[in-house]
């Protein structure tokens, strides 16, 4: 099991949701199937898989829709700490249950996952690289490739240059965008962002006027596409208002504070701007993620540049320190032999 940990801090600190302890965190990983339960026919022992925090049952209206990836049965549920089939945990210590986390619980040498939350991938793909595709990187990449869909030669603004935003920029680079404008309050992120195709940088703190006006001036009326990856509602409004009238599309990826309200003048819509939201980059985990792994295998998608640190599982706290200090993008935690 190779694992990653960004969302875990939020839940470990029990911000904004019901705390459930004890619990095994971790939701971004790659592993090998050790055994399968009764009735499982899609997977067998030895298959290489990416566990995903949302699933694909293949039977509900969402799964049958070509447009949606929000499975009725298996979409993310942060409060549920048990398996769906019997409402019980598969982990315990001294006879007492340890709860699951978003159906994955990957900070563990072994875990138990619903078959609908496992993407079967190419066994030749290195798990210590492609594990980053099981959450944030696919989210940002898909927000651009599947939802914003910039045409070759277009201009794209990306708000927030963390790992998800850089994955959105990578999607714009793969799409052949002519200009990729990175927007972030931390100017030190720009140098790193160049590796992901970002061509220009705007720090809203450097300007007296709203950043959407700055971008409109830079691009002769606005960008063709924008992708918002901060979760800050002001950033969301700016991302929408900075797209060009007539054809501009803005895509929201970041998760806002629960009290946040999005305000914009309706004329921004009447002037033919489009606002879209996305969940996990609009990828259906079982159907689509194997082909994203193939993009990496075919050298169309670069993953190594997202991986800045590696630590053994016994040093998992170091990985949290890197993240909390904002050092690096993704730290791979590997199980020790």
UniProtKB/TrEMBL annotation:
Its main location: cytoplasm. Residues 163-294 form the Alcohol dehydrogenase-like C-terminal domain. Its EC number is 1.1.1.1. Keywords: Cytoplasm, Metal-binding, NAD, Oxidoreductase, Zinc. SUPFAM superfamilies: GroES-like, NAD(P)-binding Rossmann-fold domains. InterPro entries: ADH-like_C, ADH-like_N, ADH_Zn_CS, GroES-like_sf, NAD(P)-bd_dom_sf. It catalyses: a primary alcohol + NAD(+) = an aldehyde + NADH + H(+); a secondary alcohol + NAD(+) = a ketone + NADH + H(+). Residues 17-121 form the Alcohol dehydrogenase-like N-terminal domain. Its cofactor is Zn(2+). CDD domains: alcohol_DH_plants. Homodimer. This is alcohol dehydrogenase. The lineage of its organism: Eukaryota, Viridiplantae, Streptophyta, Embryophyta, Tracheophyta.
């Amino acid at each position: 099991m190779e694992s990653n940990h960004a969302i875990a801090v939020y839940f470990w600190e029990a911000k904004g949701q019901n705390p459930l302890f004890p619990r095994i965190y971790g939701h971004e990983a790659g592993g090998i199937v050790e055994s399968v339960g009764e009735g499982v026919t899609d997977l067998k022992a030895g298959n290489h898989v990416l566990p995903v925090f949302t699933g694909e049952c293949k039977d509900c209206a969402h799964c049958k829709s070509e447009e949606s990836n929000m499975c009725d049965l298996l979409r993310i549920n942060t409060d549920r700490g048990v398996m769906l089939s019997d409402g019980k945990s598969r982990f315990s210590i001294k006879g007492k249950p340890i709860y699951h986390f978003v159906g994955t619980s990957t900070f563990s040498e072994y875990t138990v996952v619903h078959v609908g939350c496992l993407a079967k991938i190419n066994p030749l793909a290195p798990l210590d690289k492609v594990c980053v595709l099981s959450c944030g990187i696919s989210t940002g990449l898909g927000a651009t490739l599947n939802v914003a869909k910039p045409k070759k030669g277009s201009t794209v603004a990306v708000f927030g240059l963390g790992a998800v935003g850089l994955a959105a920029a990578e999607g714009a680079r793969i799409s052949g965008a002519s200009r990729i404008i990175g927007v972030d309050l931390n100017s030190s992120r720009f140098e790193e962002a160049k590796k992901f195709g970002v061509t220009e940088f705007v720090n809203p703190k450097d300007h007296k006027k709203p950043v959407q006006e700055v971008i409109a001036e830079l691009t002769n009326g606005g960008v063709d596409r924008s992708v918002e990856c901060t979760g800050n509602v002001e950033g969301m409004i700016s991302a929408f208002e900075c797209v060009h009238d007539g054809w501009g599309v803005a895509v929201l990826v970041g998760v806002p504070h629960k009290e946040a309200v999005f305000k914009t003048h309706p004329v921004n819509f009447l002037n033919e701007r489009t606002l879209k939201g996305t969940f996990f980059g609009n990828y259906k985990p079982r159907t689509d993620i194997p082909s994203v792994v193939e993009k990496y295998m075919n050298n169309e998608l670069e993953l190594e540049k997202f991986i800045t640190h590696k630590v053994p599982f016994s040093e998992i706290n170091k990985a949290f320190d890197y993240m909390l200090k904002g050092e690096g993008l993704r730290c791979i935690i590997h199980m020790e032999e």
